[in-house]
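Regression test case RT-17, inverse folding.

Input:
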């Protein structure tokens, strides 16, 4: 978790030196979180996006009971 927080601070907080307000920080944090969870390439899952990996996983599972 600490490396994720550090990455967030580097990519979002430190990049913008002057924020206009809390709403701007919250908006950028939400956008970064969305990109991080859906669009980034993840080395542990074959350098694909997390949503692609999850879709492939679900296709390979016979039923929803196996997922849970």
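Golden output:
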């Amino acid at each position: 978790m600490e490396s994720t927080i550090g990455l967030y601070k580097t990519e979002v907080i430190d990049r913008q030196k002057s924020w206009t307000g809390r709403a701007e920080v919250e908006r950028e944090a939400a956008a970064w979180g969305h990109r991080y969870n859906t669009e980034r390439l993840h080395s542990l899952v074959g350098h694909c996006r997390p949503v692609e990996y999850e879709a492939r996983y679900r296709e390979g599972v016979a039923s929803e009971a196996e997922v849970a």
